Amino acid sequence: MADSGSKVPTVVGVLTVELILSLVAVGARLYTRTVVKRVAGWDDALLVLGLVLIIGFSIGMFVCVGDGYGRHKERYSSQEYIQIIKTELIAQTFVVLAFVPTKCAVGATMIRVFPGRVLHAILWFMMITVAIIFVLNAILDFVQCNPPHHMWDYTVPASCWNPLIYTRYSIFTGAWGALYDFVCVVVPWCAGACAIVKSVELQKLSSRTDYAYDTVGINMWSSSELCLICIAASIPTLRPLLRKIQGKSDNQYRETPHSHEFQTFGSKPNSHGRIAAARLPSRTDSEEALTLDHLAYVGSARA
């Protein structure tokens, strides 16, 4: 007999597609930054850490699905329910922590590329507060009850906070994450929209009747937001890879250990018939490469 109301196909489909997209996006970025351009930096390391946590979350959720996650509570025994909730809480810890390095990777890239003390101060403030708020959210999930294993086994006597305390803090966490997405305009606003929808869904964290069914939406929107962040953080870095795939020359400018040269608009050929090159002062390799890629793109659009 069909399992009426089962969300298992949705969970499996969403997690599988978004995990593949995240792996492809981050993998392409890493290949571009480490092999094609050789300008990898700490923003790339943050994104890799975030991807590792996303993989941990996905594995945990697939284990949950195998145990019955996404079905109504009456479909499995009490012991199966306890195991599902325990695994889901662990997976949720991974997904909450994954937001810290992935969001900060976007801010770190902006810091390396764009100058300005005020901008850097704003980005550092947002990155630090995101890290603190999200880490606290992951910790509070396990300290709101004494003993903690009451969180997955409600038959164990325990002293707990009002469930709305953690729920409201989680909503605040999601809202702050959405604000960060909108501040970092590199991230498409659809990621911020996912964060807003997820914040609304977070009200279901206080569910104590059918937790493994009621929280499907929360986990799926979290997965979608992380996937969008990975894609958005990777796409702007892929221009050199696309040029390589298309067989186009990537020598629009000559690189030296201390400077870059590139064709300027309005430059005239010298006595040897070559275009004069403008020299930029060196900052960091990553910043130079990204900035010059952008300048080359703008130049080609104006030509």
Question: SSE layout and pairings?
Answer:
Blueprint (H helix, E strand, L loop, with lengths): L7 H29 L5 H26 L10 H36 L3 H27 L1 E2 L12 E2 L2 H21 L5 H13 L9 H4 L1 H19 L4 H7 L7 E3 L3 E5 L13 E5 L3 H18 L1
Antiparallel strand pairs: 1-2, 3-4, 4-5
Describe the structure.
- Mean pLDDT is 76; it is low at 252-268 and 273-303.
- Helices cover 66% and strands 6% of the residues.
- Strands 3-4-5 form a 3-stranded antiparallel β-sheet, with helices on one face. Strands 1-2 form a two-stranded antiparallel ribbon.
- Helix 3 packs antiparallel against helix 4 (117-143) and helix 6 runs antiparallel to helix 8.
- The longest helix is centred in the first third of the chain and has 36 residues, at 78-113.
- It is mainly α and 303 residues long.
- The chain has helices at residues 8-36, 42-67, 78-113, 117-143, 163-183, 189-201, 211-214, 216-234, 239-245, 285-302, and strands at 145-146, 159-160, 253-255, 259-263, 277-281.
- It contains 10 helices and 5 strands.
- A hairpin with a 3-residue loop joins strand 3 and strand 4 (259-263).
In DSSP terms, counting alpha (H) and pi (I) runs of 4 or more, how many helices?
10
* Overall pLDDT level: 76
Radius of gyration: 23 Å
Query: What share of the residues lie within helices?
Result: 55-70%
Task: Give the percentage of residues in beta strands.
Answer: 5-15%
Order of helices and strands: HHHHEEHHHHHEEEH
Q: Major sheet, described briefly? A: 3 strands, antiparallel
Shape: globular
Contiguous low-pLDDT stretches (5 residues minimum) are 252-268, 273-303
As laid out across the biggest beta sheet, the strand order is 3-4-5
**Which structural category do the helix and sheet elements fall into?**
mainly alpha
N- to C-terminal separation? Answer: 65 Å
Regarding quaternary structure, how should these chains be classified? single chain
Count of strand segments? 5
